[in-house]
């Protein structure tokens, strides 16, 4: 399974490690993802999602229903 947030679509970025001598080597900046179970009351079921920590903060702020509605509108969660 890929390292992509299932609600926001966040994924890894590519950049450089830069040494003191300004030598550059490629590296990946992975998204900060966690696996978490959520209860969806309108469907009366539990789902396990791989979400970024910023998405988790948004869920705590606006609620799971609003977050799912937003993700479905953007096409990330079906």
UniProtKB/TrEMBL annotation:
One of its GO terms (biological process) is translation. One of its GO terms (molecular function) is structural constituent of ribosome. Gene3D superfamilies: Ribosomal protein L28/L24. Keywords: Ribonucleoprotein, Ribosomal protein. It comes from the Bacteria. The keyword Ribosomal protein applies. GO terms for cellular component: ribonucleoprotein complex; ribosome. NCBIfam families: L28 (TIGR00009). Belongs to the bacterial ribosomal protein bL28 family. This is Large ribosomal subunit protein bL28. The lineage of its organism: Bacteria, Pseudomonadati, Bacteroidota, Flavobacteriia, Flavobacteriales. The gene is rpmB.
